[in-house]
Design brief:
It contains 15 helices and 8 strands. A hairpin with a 2-residue loop joins strand 2 and strand 3. The chain starts with 5 loop residues before the first helix and ends in a 5-residue tail after the last helix. The protein folds into 3 domains: 61 residues, no CATH class; 85 residues; 117 residues, Orthogonal Bundle (Endonuclease III, domain 1), CATH 1.10.340. Helices cover 50% and strands 12% of the residues.
Length: 289
């Protein structure tokens, strides 16, 4: 199997419906419950699911696609390094190689754009653990989506029609506060056909569409584009990335300006670079206590 760091991939802020219990990652992807256990020594990935197919593909093939295992990490990293040279930051390559090694096997998932919209509207001013809790509260409101598997209870991700049926008060009861109105307005106005059409559009058209919604600024829009469309030209900027860009490149600014600078410096795969930086800054660069 291609290089994979399952822990980094499922716990680096790009997905919120996974938890690790007794060495096994348990997750819900749309209406599939998945149990994944990866042996780093022999590269064997053990897969269990409530279904034999995943997204219209045989289970193993679908999981390989979901985990981004067809991405050539060597090509991606070579492209980022070349962009560093052409943009005048070749001196950063030794540090970049350190970051590569620390995040080796981290991959960007193939996720559903609609789900990413809800997840990242919720994410505003919340840490990852709180985002996970809030999303599960929303999903559990729909008992008809209950899935029992291996002694655990899970809930599939609700449809747009189900979410439209919830009044803003239900979102507030789930602890979403001011985001409740944003979500309700989004569900009432989003066009799912347009979400699918955007797959074939450039990043500017994607940004233009998402930025029209309340609660979606440059950071959230870039998260949706990167994680919901696998558009690696997106470059989400949160507090971790802002600090990273300032401390390593002496570059400051708002999410929009840093998005534009990140794309210029790191090139076509700046989205992968962003996730390496996020994982390194949040999980790997702090000294042992």
């Amino acid at each position: 199997m291609s290089a994979l760091d399952l822990d980094a991939t499922l716990d680096c802020g790009q997905t919120f419906r996974w938890r690790k219990i007794n060495g096994v990652w348990q997750g819900v992807v749309e209406d599939n419950v998945l149990f994944l256990e990866y042996n780093k020594e022999n590269g064997y990935l053990k897969i269990s699911s409530n279904k034999e197919e995943f997204r219209g593909m045989p289970l193993k093939e679908g999981i390989e696609d979901y985990l981004g295992l067809k991405d050539s990490l060597e090509t991606i990293r070579g492209s980022i390094n070349n962009s560093l040279i052409s943009s005048g930051y070749s001196d950063f390559r030794p540090k970049m190689n350190e970051i590569y090694q620390a995040s080796y096997g981290l991959r960007l998932l193939r996720q559903d754009a609609f789900e990413m919209c809800m997840d990242y509207i919720i994410s505003t001013q919340m840490n990852i653990n709180m985002i996970k809790v809030k999303i599960e509260r929303i999903c559990s409101l729909f008992s008809e989506n209950r899935i029992n598997f291996k002694g655990y209870t899970f809930f599939g991700f609700p449809t747009l029609e189900q979410l439209k049926s919830l009044p803003a008060a239900k979102f507030r009861e789930a602890g979403l506060g001011y985001r409740s109105e944003w979500l309700q307005e989004f569900f009432m106005n989003v066009d799912c056909r347009k979400l699918k059409e955007l797959k074939n559009c450039g990043i500017k058209e994607k940004l233009d569409y998402f930025l029209r919604f309340k609660g979606i600024g440059y950071k959230v829009a870039n998260c949706i584009i990167l994680f919901g469309y696998s558009d690696f030209s997106a470059f989400p900027v949160d507090v971790w990335i802002s600090r990273f860009m300032e401390s390593n490149f002496n570059i400051t600014g708002n999410p929009q300006s840093l998005f534009e600078k990140g794309r210029k410096i790191f090139g076509d795969y700046c989205g992968y670079a962003q996730e390496y930086f996020f994982n390194y800054s949040r999980n790997l660069s702090r000294p042992e206590v």
